[in-house]
Amino acid sequence: MLDETELIAAAQRGDLKAFNQLVLNYQTTIYNIAYRILGDGDMAADATQEAFISAYRAIGQYRGESFKGWLMRIVTNACYDQLRAKKRRPSAPLEAVLYGDPEESRLQGERIQRPEEYVDQQELGELIRRGLQTLPPDQRAVLVLSDIQEMKYDEIAHVLGIPPGTVKSRLNRARSKLRDFMQAHAELLPARYRLEAKGGGGAAGLADLLIEWMGVWQLGGW
Amino acid sequence: MKKITLRKNEHQYVTKRLSAWIDGTLSERERGRVQAHLQSCEACRQELESLLWVKRLLRQTPTVPVPRSFVLRPADLERSSAGARWQPPVAIRWATAVVSLLFVIVLLGDLLSAPLMTGRLKMAAPVEQEATMRQANAHESEFVATTGEVTQEVERVQETVVIEKEVVVTVAVEKATPTAAQKVMPFSPDAEATPTVALRMMIPLTDTGATVEATVPADEQPVSLMAVEATPSEENLSPTPEADSQQAVAGPTRGEPLPEETPIPQTVESPPLPARLPWRIAELGLGAALIILIVLWFVMRKRI
Predict the structure, then answer these.
(1) ipTM exceeding 0.95?
(2) DSSP letter at A179?
(3) Interface check B123 vs A, CB under 8 A
(4) What is the pLDDT of residues A186-212, one digit of tens each?
(5) Closest listed residue to residue A43, CA positions, set A58, A33, A54, A55
(6) Are A125 and B68 within 8 A, CB to CB?
(7) Which is nearest to B161 in space by CA: B241, B269, B238, B277?
(8) Alpha carbon of B119 to those of A220, B266, B268: distances in Å?
(9) Which of B91, B159, B168, B183 is the most buried (most CB within 10 A)?
């Protein structure tokens, strides 16, 4: 099994099989980005297909940066093309039949999910999907790359071709907007995901949250 | 460092930075200021909490499995999809189209509006000096002879000068054997008569053309007109090509010697550069914009 660099080199020499191995490695990630930006399975599939075709045609221009980042740029452009060209109504999201292995679900990791958890998660996913659709596409893209794909600001800036300052401001606005949506539809959110005050609320509650998030931050004496 | 800051500004300052604070991308100084504010502001704490909550939710977004395999088959590649070809952003495409169009329009406008300066001046036939002689050649000139004087008229045949209201007509009148006593009188009464063989005069331009008169004192010597040249009055401020070897003319009515071999000027020069400047500026500006846009196309293409 060739490593990624070798696969890319082979693909640059025109080896379609090598490229297809890269497709297999990245298709879930790329499809998910498209799905979260577009909110529709069919459009996401089209965008993913277009993205990989573009990538194969343009692989000669790939210059050794992050390959994942490079693919992400291509797929976000493909998504913007889709949004411009087509105005389709989003199909019912739970039509998507499960084909892939459970192992492909990156976020679940090795944990065995209980059925209720699975259902809850699907409901969360659906609400997030709807919430994301209320954002303008450029805010949506930043939010997806940052909070779902967990990319850093400068990586996102490079993928989207915008300054890091713009990433920061778009992200801020996107999160606020999605937060407003989620709070407005809190009744649709499974209980485990709802925002509730931890501990006594206020500074103490915040401290708990921070500890949970940051882990290593020193909070004493602020 | 300012100790006292307006509450409202501080609020805005912090609110704008909460997301970045969550992501740990604030500078040390910003972080300190945000944390100090959070200590005392319940509203901002709640805002922060809700943003943290959203980030956490998104982190748990389920991964959707692929509906099918996206491996490429040769057939997929043959099918030429317009989306696969990279295109620059719409704004750049529009800008390029608009600038190109403007550039073409400006170029055409420049070409079409340039006046055709082909005023033609006829050479007058030599004048025979005779007290009562009347005309030799009806086509080219009319000679009016009066007692003691020969007045020669030269008429401009064709004129398409549209810009200048006056022209300078240089009339060369040569006497067969000029001597100091034989002076050529310039048209303008207050001009100095000099023993020169040429005069430059500012002549007003009318609808039918310009008429110049030169009065040559009558004597035994025949007078012949050597060359006539009409140029727009502006040209008179700088030496004409033919007059390069001479000193600049201080006033339009002062006569000055022509070089020995004066070519017969057939055409009048087009207006000097300053009059065409707006066109040049427009062409340069649009050309530069076009070049910048083309460079942008290439740069953006490379970055894919």
Answers:
(1) no
(2) H
(3) no
(4) 888 888 888 764 433 444 455 555 555
(5) A33
(6) no
(7) B269
(8) 94, 7, 6
(9) B168
